[in-house]
Amino acid sequence: MSNDKTNSAWGGRFSEATDAFVQRFTASVEFDQRMYAQDIEGSVAHATMLAKVGVLTEGERDDIIKGLGEIKADIEAGNFEWSIALEDVHMNIEAALTKKIGITGKKLHTGRSRNDQVATDIRLYLRSEIDALSLELTRLQEGLINLAAAQADTIMPGFTHLQTAQPVTFGHHLLAWNEMLERDYARLQDCRKRVNVLPLGAAALAGTTYPIDRHYTAELLGFDAPTENSLDSVSDRDFAIEFNADAAIIMMHLSRFSEELVLWASAQFNFIELPDRFCTGSSIMPQKKNPDVPELVRGKSGRVFGHLFSLLTLMKSQPLAYNKDNQEDKEPLFDTIDTLAGSLRAFADMMPSVSPKKEVMREAALRGFSTATDLADYLVRKGVAFRDSHEVVGSAVGYGVKTGKDLAEMTLEELQQFGSMITEDVFDVLTLEGSVSARDHIGGTAPNQVRAAAKRATEKLAQR
Ligand code: ARG
Question: What does the alpha-carbon distance between residue 284 and residue 243 come to, in Å, rounded to a whole number?
């Protein structure tokens, strides 16, 4: 019997109602209601299994499933009143079911606990979010790879220490980003395996006395298998931490892309044009076009890293099995999902319209002695030992710094001061095109390698 002074879910043992502030303080419904669809899906599967093993009648099962279906429709139509007094999404939905179908509604919770229920809901929810995020990641990769293939011949300076190092192609640079995302995708798929197991049946912590069929419930919900240990089932949040770690790595990658886009869009670099619709202006400086989207993504990486630490700290030192602490898993996890989804979407939308300013990039690659290594390699081909050729080219660069000339701008006579074996054919290797196309091996920056790499990357995407 429910005592109207106390919560109906546990009123029997209590002699006074929960303090009003404590009720608000301990409630999670404001944020866990976003798992309503998964909560209902889990309950439908649970009721179906209970009927299969004879704990519920088929009629009871059907009433429960019909009632839950109506509740889902009510929630989606905005006709559902969430109550803080009912604490969380699970008890709100169960109470609504009992209101709808009477005493049968109270039988739904047979053989389960909110502890295994919430663990199931989070896994179902995260699984579908991983799938959605994976699609968004794929869309971003498609945009990147297409742009890379189109820019396989576009030359830009490659950097180490943010100093001009050697010429590379813009397509090659973009495919470096794609490699990072390719690993990110694989990490998400790997994480999904550990998300996709069924905790339901662990009940509060020890399992249940009913003749449940966990394999059947797992199958109904599309889980690969039931979990192995009931204590672990209700307390494990590794999967959420692992997902957040994967998300943190993706955000770290996006922050690197962002940083480069911000630099490249600056007047000082002037390498790219970002589409106006992804930028904002300044209310005081009329000339400004700010790269807000990459800046914001760069900034948002911070909160995802923070959530990873929240979750690690949440689980640190927790004794088995379920503890109320675990309710704190949801807000960081949800915010990580939202932040990652938004950042991937912004990047996927923006990437196809990033346009390089080829002339500026080329100009920049011509400055900074970017073909010095090519000259050193040329001397090696003429029989000079690499360490000696490095020395020779160093002197030539020193001369260039003094006279304001790049290597390709020097006359043959000027170059020959540093090495008598230098002949007219040196100018082939000092050109930017000669430099990039000489790096003609798998993983190299030569335009034909970039085109081949882009093709392989596209084929990989098609296999997903
Ligand atoms: N709202 C709770 C959570 O998110 C559900 C589980 C509550 N279990 C309990 N024994 N109080 O963790």
Answer: 42
Residues with CB under 6 A from ligand 1: 28, 32, 88, 114-115, 118, 322, 324, 326-327
* Ligand 1 mutation target, pool 83, 324, 330, most atoms within 8 A of CB: 324
Where in the sequence numbering do the catalytic residues fall?
161, 282
For the whole model, what pTM was predicted?
0.94
Closest CA to 158 of 454, 355, 439: 439
State the CB neighbour count (10 A cutoff) for residue 57. 13
Spatial CA neighbour of 96 closest among 164, 57, 40, 143: 40
Q: Please name the residue whose Cα sits nearest to atom 11 of ligand 1.
A: 324
Domains and CATH numbers, the chain: 18-110 (1.10.275.10), 115-149+156-202+227-362 (1.20.200.10), 367-462 (1.10.40.30)
Triad 274, 280, 286: Cα angle to 5° = 105
Count other C-beta atoms under 10 Å from residue 401's C-beta: 10
- Asked whether the beta carbons of 139 and 337 are under 8 A apart, the reply is no
- One digit per residue, the tens of pLDDT, for the chain of length 464 reads 334 455 667 777 888 988 999 999 999 999 999 999 999 999 999 999 999 999 999 999 999 999 999 999 999 999 999 999 999 999 999 999 999 999 999 999 999 999 999 999 999 999 999 999 999 999 999 999 999 999 999 999 999 999 999 999 999 999 999 999 999 999 999 999 999 999 999 999 999 999 999 999 999 999 999 999 999 999 999 999 999 999 999 999 999 999 999 999 999 999 999 999 988 888 888 888 899 999 999 999 999 999 999 999 999 999 999 999 999 999 999 999 999 999 999 999 999 999 999 999 999 999 889 999 999 999 999 999 999 999 999 999 999 999 999 999 999 999 999 999 999 999 999 999 999 999 999 999 999 999 999 999 999 999 99
For ligand 1, atom 10: residue with the closest CA: 115
